[in-house]
Amino acid sequence: MMKGWYYRLLADARWIVVFLVLWSALFIGVYLPFDRRIEQMDQPLERAWERLSQSIQTNRLGSLLAFDRLGQLAENMDQSFSSFMDSEAELISRILLTESDQRKLESGFQLVEYENAVANLKEHLRREAKDQKVTLAPAVLDGMPEPVIETEKPSLLWVDYAFAKHLLALAIACRPTEIHAFQTLTSIDGPVPERGLRTSQFRLQLTGDMATIQQLLRTLPMRGSETQAMGLPSPYWEKPALFVGGLMIEKTGPTPDDQVRLNLLAEGFHYIHTRNQ
Amino acid sequence: MIHRIKQMLWRQRRLVVMLPEHDAVRVGVYLDGYPIPSQIVSELYTLDTAVTPRNGLKNAEHWAAFVDQHRENSWVIVLPHALTISQSITCEATTPDLIDQDLQKQAKKLSGLGQKKVILDHELLPSHQSDRSTYWVTYCQDDEIQQIIREHGIENVAICDVIGSHDACWSGIQHLRRPKGNWMLVEVLDGGTSLVVFEDHTPLLSHFYPIGHALAKERGQSAKGTYRLGGGSSSTTPKLSPLSSGIQSIGEAWAREMERTILEHGNREGRVSSSVERQLPCLLICEPGSRSDWASQLQLHLGSSVLPFENWVHETSIGWKSKNLRQDGACMATCKKSISLPSLLPEEVKQAWDQKQVDLAFRSAALVACFLITVMLVAAFIQKSMLWDIKSDLFEELDSVEARVGKSLEVFDSLKEEYQMLRPLLMAEDQTVAVLKTLETLQSISSEDPGWMVLLADIDSYYSIGDQLQARALADDTNSVLSSTTNRIVMDRGLVLEMVLDAKGEAMRRRLEETVAFFRQSDFILRADTLPGNARRSIVSSNVILRDRHFAIILELPSVSDQVQAPTSNSRQEETSWKRVQPAAVSTNTISAEGS
Question: How far apart are CA B167 and CA B190, in angstroms?
């Protein structure tokens, strides 16, 4: 009975059987493997998702790394980095030494050359102090940077020399009553990084009226060219920016017009960038 | 496409109505529809293979092709007049079984068919008698139906119904305008003449007479007669006599036969018909060319008023125009659009038809299932494809994001290195700016009120120099008592300002408060307050100050963070640090600008 039905259905509707066979083949041969492959994508996807979630939870990029800003992340970072480097370059350009000082750094260090330069500088400062009617204590010129021979890069002494020259020249140019003391606090010994900032520190003590002290402090972080443009005392056009590391301004008399004494810790920064040969 | 699918689904809706005629078969193909089926094909075939196809007539080969083409459709056979007997029979039985038995007994007695297998069916007619029922009974020999099926080669088609010719006429007139009261329908065919007497739309009597067009044409030769089973092979073309001559010569006998039939029926019904009653209005169906001859015979011998059938068929109750009364009637009855007719379908053919319907239902269900499966699988494929695309895109996006995060971290690390390198410079710059701003602020304060600064120092210098001075004083004067040098304000960066206010009492205190408040409002000061006495150092010479008017103020500066951090809105300290890595914030012009 069943056989009769089967053959009748087959005879009448062979296309249905063909259709079913075809779809079954498609289902088994194409659909199921396709489905399995799609399911297999879940695991790596979940792993990648977890990685990303952890990155976001423990991120060091702060609010830059948020789901809604992922698209602009790289662009923002590049932009930030680029802006930062521009600012850094601008900042470093303010502390760069003159080209002649840079050349001295790059050439071999000659102690005799340095000693001659220091002697000339002392003479020059004495002359300037006399011209400006500034009392220069004898100990002031003894505080110039001292050469250290056994060091990795003795030519760095020229950096301290340059900062000392500009600081003392500026102090004299501001015409205080007296410069009591000057001292180089840093030494050139120690390792020199391939790239970085080296800090030179100097202690300067002087006495003058408040306006003089204020003028010195205002002029200190400016480059020579900026100082000249503003009509402030500027002994050297190419003076790099120097900074206040610490200070103490102390009144010397009971009346408001009495002079003040400045104990200044001045800082200069030198940008070291050893070019790979 | 949709039309084809519809055809596949509803193939049974195509109905082939077949009318075997004298040496030919007339077929009509109907498409079931609303409100009535429509005829889409009408053909006339001869089963004689030697006949050359000519106008409107096709030969046996064409017939075979037609059968093959419509094998899947439902077929209805309208039996020729000569093969069926239809009549009204009154029956007193009440139960269906008894009615069947009674009707069969009466029918056999009337027909004289003896032991031959008879197929009989009946339909109840409206009756005015309450104690008896009147049935319209149609019957024929089973052999003759089987022979028609065999001769026409339709053994393998689905025959859904077999209808008597008179019954088909009965169905056909249901939607036609017809005479009122008793009337008769006379159809003159090649093989004979059919007579059906109606009372309104209900048949009372039917009869067939082997006198018709063909006989009239062949008078004197009498080679052909009524519908001949086993015929159709004769290829001789009879020599036709003038039609009017044949009709005139046989008309009297023809009319008398009909008159006699009507009289017998009246007697059987217990009525004696008068000549007036016998003069029934008559609808005549015949070849248009010979209509006037047949009509004149009817008028002459029966006294009937003859109404040409064509004049009536144009007005139907459903706007239907009948071209072939029997074909259309059979189709309407089969499609349940007309009255129910006695069915002469043999049992085995009926079973075959039922089987065909079941097969069709199966195939339809299979087709629907196939369609649903196709839709589901296609939808599933589309869905999976979309899923594949989404996951692939996600993969690419995640890879891209990971790469971007990795690259950003590298950039960030570089930024940190750069920041760490610059940090001492930034701190020195901050310190310098703070000192300059403090001096400027002091200048603006001193220009407004009496008072002056006696000391300004950064916190480290203040305590280191102060402690040194105190230690030196202690060494110089062994009698002095060592004040506490361990008490100091703890802060990363700050300035200590000592000043003398030239005022007294409340005014002095208010002035001090105003000065502190003034510093507190400055954007470069994180916190401003008076320095507690135990945290102060005696640095300024006593001759410089005015006793009880000498105050120390601590100014806390924002520290420069050693970490590059994301900006947060509630921390000025972090804000300042972060700004250092922002292009807008890192401006070395700040110093020169402030200084100016």
Answer: 19
pLDDT number for residue B533: 85
Q: Is B185 exposed, middle or buried (0-12, 13-18, 19+ CB in 10 A)?
A: buried
User: Using N-to-C axis directions, what is the helix angle for B243-268 and B291-301, rounded to 10°?
Assistant: 40
Report the pLDDT value the prediction gives residue A128, as an integer from 0 to 100.
93
Answer whether the bond into residue B35 is a cis peptide, omega within 30°: yes
Model confidence at B376, in pLDDT bands (50, 70, 90)?
A: very high
Q: What is the pLDDT of residue A201?
A: 93
Average pLDDT value for residue range B493-497: 91
B83 class by beta-carbon count within 10 Å (0-12 exposed, 13-18 middle, 19+ buried): buried
- Within 8 A by CB and 6+ apart from B578, the residues are B561, B564, B565, B566, B567, B585
Nearest-Å Rg of the Cα atoms of chain B is 61
Q: How many residues does chain B have?
A: 596
- Inter-chain residue contact B540 with A250, CB threshold 8 Å: yes
Structure ipTM: 0.81
The answer to whether the beta carbons of residues A221 and A243 sit under 8 Å apart is yes
**Picking from A248-262, B499-513, B569-583, which range would have the lowest pLDDT averaged per residue?**
B569-583
> Which residues of chain B are within 8 Å of residue A217 when distances are taken between CB atoms?
432, 435-436, 439
Dist. CA B269–CA B423, nearest whole Å:
132
The region of weakest confidence among A193-197, B16-20, B289-293, B452-456 is B289-293
CA distance B509 to chain A (A): 20
Q: Which of residues 339-398 of B touch A (CB under 8 A)?
A: 359, 362-363, 366-367, 370, 373-374, 377, 380-381, 384, 387-388, 391-392, 394-395, 398
What DSSP character marks residue B562? S
Is residue B461 a contact partner of residue A263, using CB atoms and an 8 Å limit?
A: yes
Burial class of residue B474, CB neighbours in 10 A (0-12, 13-18, 19+): middle
What is the DSSP-derived secondary structure letter of residue A29? I
Query: What are the pLDDT digits (tens) for B99-123?
Result: 777 777 777 776 666 677 888 888 8
The helix/strand/coil state of B442 is helix
Query: 3-state DSSP call for residue A252?
Result: coil
DSSP E strands, B146-231: 158-163, 182-188, 193-199, 202-209
Model pLDDT, residue B217: 64
The conformation of residue B83, written as its DSSP 8-state character, comes to: G
DSSP symbols for B17-81: EEEEETTEEEEEEEE--SSS-EEEEEEEE---TTPPPBTTEE-HHHHHHHHHHTTTSEEEEE--G
User: Which residues, numbered 87 to 146 in chain A, qualify as contacts with chain B under a Cβ-Cβ cut-off of 8 Å?
Assistant: 87-88, 90-91, 94-95
Mean pLDDT, residues B228-235 taken together: 42
Chain A CB within 8 Å of residue B8 CB: no
Q: Which residue has the tokens 């102390």?
A: A250
CB pairs under 8 A between A and B: 217
The dihedrals phi and psi of A33, each to the nearest 5 degrees, come to -60, -40
Q: Which residues of B touch A65 (CB under 8 A)?
A: 405, 408
User: At B332, is the pLDDT very low, low, confident or very high (cuts 50, 70, 90)?
Assistant: confident
A 10 A CB-CB count for B12 gives 18
The residue of A56, A64, A87, A174 whose CB has the most chain B CBs within 10 angstroms, and thus the best one to mutate to test that interface, is A87
